[in-house]
Amino acid sequence: MGRRRTKPSWLMRILALLLLAVVCAGGWYWWQLQHWSPDEAVYPDQGVEVAARDGRVNFRTVRALGGRFAYLDASYGAKGSDAAFSRNLTAAREAGLQVGAVHRFDPCVMADGQSANFVTVVPRGADMLPPAIELAATADDCAERVTEAAVESELMTLINQIEGHAGKPVILKIMPGFETRYGLSARIERNLWLSRTRLLPDYAGRPWLLWTANEALRSEAAEQPLRWVVVQP
Description:
The protein is of the alpha/beta class. The protein has one domain (39-231): Glycosidases (TIM Barrel, Alpha-Beta Barrel), CATH 3.20.20.80. The chain is built from 6 helices and 9 strands. The chain has helices spanning 10-34, 59-64, 85-94, 111-121, 148-166, 176-182; strands spanning 46-50, 67-76, 80-81, 98-104, 132-135, 171-174, 191-195, 210-219, 222-231. Helix 6 links the parallel strand 6 and strand 7. Helix 4 runs parallel beside helix 5 (148-166). The longest helix is centred in the first third of the chain and has 25 residues, at 10-34. It starts with 9 loop residues before the first helix and ends with a strand.
């Protein structure tokens, strides 16, 4: 005769129910996180950062969702440019959004080439928002050694050159890894743009102007998740 199957004990049933509850709660939290943006009553000025990798973005839908501005990735280093910048610039303006441009700083390249690249890609205009310089890549992977002092010196040169073109002070979009490596936010007096999904960012040690509050917001504006940004009220 074979063994009789025993029914699961009450303890196993409770554990199974608890596991199911945890899975459901995790799924709900993940969905909420993907669709969360800060309360407009607290942060009335909200918008997006968009790049070619985000695909086609419906900026009119961005506006309907409460967006008032769009920062567009424009150039990086001395030669790189975002393939969708011109298209996004036109579409965002037609949707009635204020528009700004983002340059990604390359610590391995001299400032002169980077500013020349930015000037070539980004038009000058009084209606443009202050330009932003994204600080994410460090010099640790450069082909030749670049000292911390050299990184800071070239960055300051780039800041001055881009400000000369734009006629406005730049905003420093500092990512956590770059700030940990160089700690420049305390030494360069420019407005800051920090990133941290849902939780207020504090890694710069001083107040910020812009906050990427959701780094992967799912919405009707695009098939890909977007970076949702708010302004300090």
